[in-house]
Amino acid sequence: MKTALLSLTVMVGLSACGFQLRDHYQVPQTLQQMHLQAVSSMGLEESLKQRLLTAGIQLVDHNQAGVAQLRILSDRLDRRTLSLFESGQVAEYELLYRVDYQVIRDGEVVIEDNVEVARDYQDDPNFALAKTRERELLVAEMRDDAARRLVRKMITAFADNEQ
Fold first, then answer.
1. For residue 25, which of 51, 64, 61, 63 has the smallest C-alpha distance?
2. Residues 71, 8: Cα–Cα separation, whole Å
3. Helix (H, G, I), strand (E, B), or coil: what is residue 163?
4. Phi/psi-derived region of residue 56, left when phi > 0, alpha when psi is between -120 and 50, beta in every other case
5. What pTM value is reported for the model?
6. I want to staple 47 with a disulfide (CB 3.0 to 4.6 A). Which of 33, 121, 127, 147 is the partner?
7. Mind listing the pLDDT tens digit for each residue in 24-80?
8. What is the largest CA-CA distance in the chain?
């Protein structure tokens, strides 16, 4: 009896504070099915497919009437120098990953927005091979983070438009 009461108290407390599992969304009816059109990055497209399916959005192969279309316009990775070694070589970069996208429904652009992800990256010319691999992993993580943010922003925008 005490265990049941404690469990009930914890569940009520968690639901009262708005706790939700990560990447669990209430997908609006208008986004139950979606067509994904990505023009550039294969890595981003795979991350987006995974995030959309996890969110409960069914992906369709061809753009159909009444089905929303997520169009990735561009994705790019830029870097900006943050600090230098005494020798003048770059010691630290800021990597900026940006994705520009549109959501189209019934031939009309409903959402046109972008997502940016930034990370700091410390470079060391003495460990060039290891640092190259580290940067590749960091960029893959940034793509996944951008895909998660994009899906969250899109679902939130559609939910706000339906209210």
1. 51
2. 44
3. coil
4. left
5. 0.75
6. 147
7. 567 777 788 899 988 766 688 999 999 999 888 899 987 777 788 999 999 999 988
8. 70
Distance separating alpha carbons of residues 141 and 121, to the nearest angstrom: 13
The answer to whether 123 and 142 have CB atoms below 8 angstroms apart is no
Say if residue 52 is exposed, middle or buried (CB neighbours under 10 Å; 0-12, 13-18, 19+).
buried
| Rama region for 106: left / alpha / beta (φ>0; ψ in -120 to 50; rest) | left
| Rounded distance between C-alpha atoms, residue 101 and residue 152, angstroms | 13
pLDDT tens figures, 82-127:
887 787 777 788 899 999 999 988 888 888 999 999 998 887 766 6
Q: With beta carbons less than 8 A apart as the criterion, state whether 96 and 120 touch.
A: no
3-class state of residue 27 by DSSP: coil
φ and ψ of 158, to 5 deg = -65, -40
